[in-house]
Amino acid sequence: MKKILLFVCMALSTISMSIFAQKVESVGSVPYQWSSVPIVGGGFVDGIICHPKVPDIRYCRTDMGGAYKWNPGKQCWESLLDWINLKESNLQGVESIAIDPNNPDNVYIACGTYTRNRTCAVLRSSDGGNSFLRIDVPFTMGGNENGRGNGERMMVDPHNSNIIYIGTRLHGLWRSMDKGESWQKVNSFPDVTERFDMSDMKSWQKKGSGIVCVVFDNASDDIYVAVSLMNSNNLFVSHDKGETWNDVDGAPSQYRPTHMIMTTAGDLLVSYADTPGPSQMNDGALWKYTIAKKRWEDISPLKIEKGENAGFGYAAVSVDAKNPKHIIVSTHNLGGKLGFKSDELFHSIDGGKHWKPIFKTGYEYDYSKAPYVKVAPLHWMFDVEIDPANSEHAIFTTGFGGWETFNLSAVERGEKVKWSIMSSGIEETVPLELYAPEKGARLISGVGDYGGFTHFDLYNPCPEGSHSNPTFGNTNGVTGAWLKQELIVRTGTLFGNQPGARTISYSEDGGKTWSMCDNVPINGARNGHIAVSADGKSWIWTPDNSDAYITSDKGHSWQKCIGLPKGIRTIADKANPKLFYAVNVPDQILYSSIDGGTTFVADTLQLGVNNQPIPAKIAGNMRQPSRGDIRGGQDRIYSTPGYEKDLWIAAYDGLYHSTSMTGYDFMTMDKVSTIYGFGFGKAKPGNNYPALYLIGVVNGQYGFFRSDDSARTWVRINDDQHQYGLVLHICGDMQEYGRVYVGTHGRGIQMGAPL
Predict the structure, then answer these.
(1) Annotated active-site residue in 320, 387, 449, 720
(2) pLDDT at position 532 over 90
(3) Is the pTM value of this prediction over 0.85?
(4) How buried is 317 (Cβ within 10 angstroms: 0-12 exposed, 13-18 middle, 19+ buried)?
């Protein structure tokens, strides 16, 4: 098995390795400091792992944005996996985390986003997450697949810290006897393979997620393993340290286990549902197994008539380490049923005999750390934890990060439980477009699932929350009028139910407030790309799978652009309001308009692009392996700020430049061989031409780069500890030389500034 030592907290490196097998020429580098542009949360935190004995030692895992450790001094979470490079971006999805109960410095992270990708590993740290030894493993993981909130799948034996077990989705139960150094399959464990029809989407959504929980009994050598199976045995026990296994008699089999914990009184608590989630659940329960008496008891907070479906499931359960009768459990898909407006956390102090609903009883939210979540309903509470060191402190996770309280017992007194954002430091968004104006806001973003944000302050979340009127889920297009900086236009998809809302909106105060357009060009128009003329009078929108349409009255009326193919992205010249452009890079065709975007003419280009698919070992898990991720910044045309007819084509396989002097005769910039993102920034002092920024391969070396001399020379501005896996966009700050923004796939917006 391959082992690689990875130092997470180390000085900025000036030595980098190309991800491609090419001859590497020397590329200069400059030191940069990297941090997040705060949105806070922004994704599914699907697991919280607390050390059972040492206060404030806790980690969290995300489905596609890495792992984090809590820093009690700074009161925030700190990312642990920013060193993951593009080629190995499958490691960004975390399946499970385990902490040695006897030594808090020993921590293990199981990494693998999709089971179809063989790039999976267990990361081992012996210094509390400051550095990791990577061990490649012979099984796959699915950190972003169904059942990702189940767990924990990986556990360290409390009787012997050398021994670790991990349950997998597809490959059975595995064990390490040497602190994760090597792994062997536990062949004596039963075959729990679930058969299903891969062509049946409903079957796929309802299928289980393999082995989901491993629990040790501290009072004996017993090990319990729960499997996401239904209508068959799904709970197993070993009484001889994992050598042989038996069914646990009487265990409920009409549901799938979602979480399992052992109380200090020697009871097992198991939450159940008919699917592993976060897919729809229609049935479920909470059961307690008293091991000493071999007795099962249904302690579900909501009792359902025997033989009837509950209509919802139970997502997660937690027990107080100091009091085995103190329990909380979360639901999934309860909203709108049985008198509940939303999902619920139920609280018991008598071992499940009586329950109180926390949110229905009374609660209070503090949104100040992430104002945008105010629009989010309670959902996806697939992990709930009572802090082992503080019975008043509870945490639950959501698709927007998560919440915590420090007065949990208030519910028993009929008082409000006060909740605040728990996810400071966690950034798990996917930016789909970045726009940096010359005046006003420093950065305006389009983000997947969470709309978009206008950051005037780069160091705090936007107090207004995400863009509204309307509120978008995805924002695929956002740009502005370069000669009228206060005008910004965005396009996307609607978030939730907003009757009468349109999927295009504009701001006339630089992104502070927004107005909906009166109309859309066609029924169902959404997403796509938007271009705005330099003076702001003409906008061209190409919705998804649509022709391009132009408006000159802020969206009151639209007409189809003449001469453009369906689905093409247009841009505006940033100096001349009459000029628009579009490019089809693979077919080497440039489309240009000189009449403000009404009509376009086509010209054939002579670019050195290659349409042959790149090897799978280089492509990784990108959605369009032949020419990069289709959401990225490659294969696009860019207009230089302040210069008429000054154009750059950032092809997937090269960079090309044309000026007003050369017409549309694009010159190859031969140092660049691969591009994933491209953008401009404020010029270096003493220069007139904007700085260029690029994500890709320059002189055979992969990284983030800056050029101050129109691509004649480049310097690398990131280092091997700041790579962020799959990255989609790069954009320089137009108000401060050297500052740059990078749009990642799961680590939010990263910001770099020269040291």
Answers:
(1) 449
(2) yes
(3) yes
(4) buried
